[in-house]
Amino acid sequence: MKLTEEQIRDGLERLDGWQLDSQGPVLRRTLRLADFPAVVSLVNTIAQAAEQAGHHPDMDIRYDTLHLALSTHSVGAITDKDMALAARIDELVPQG
User: Fold this and answer.
1) What is the pLDDT of residues 7-63, one digit of tens each?
2) 30-57 as b/e, with b when 16 or more CB fall inside 10 Å?
3) pTM, two decimal places
4) DSSP-assigned letter for residue 90
5) For 63, phi and psi rounded to 5 degrees?
6) What separation in angstroms does the CA of 21 have from each of 18, 47, 65, 71, 78?
7) What is the pLDDT of residues 72-94, one digit of tens each?
8) Which residues have C-beta within 8 Å of that of residue 90, sequence separation ≥ 6?
């Protein structure tokens, strides 16, 4: 389901560090972890969750930094699938 701007704003308030890209309908989050192996491990964990959800984020690794982007390309908008996967990713990010 395509979300309204209000629904997106409300959803972002419940997420950790996600922002709406001003250039298009994309949710973005950047994470910095201890090192490259930690980032790769998280990417693998996110990949498993994405497969289970049937919805896949764009992921870009830069040594100890992971850039995530979520959008439902098939409808050209942010949907409930994006919000749900963002929340699941928040649960998977190591704390501390």
Assistant:
1) 999 999 999 999 999 998 999 999 999 999 999 999 999 999 999 999 999 999 999
2) ebebeeeeebeebbeebeebbeeeebeb
3) 0.95
4) H
5) 55, -95
6) 9, 22, 18, 10, 11
7) 999 999 999 999 999 999 999 99
8) 15, 16, 17, 18
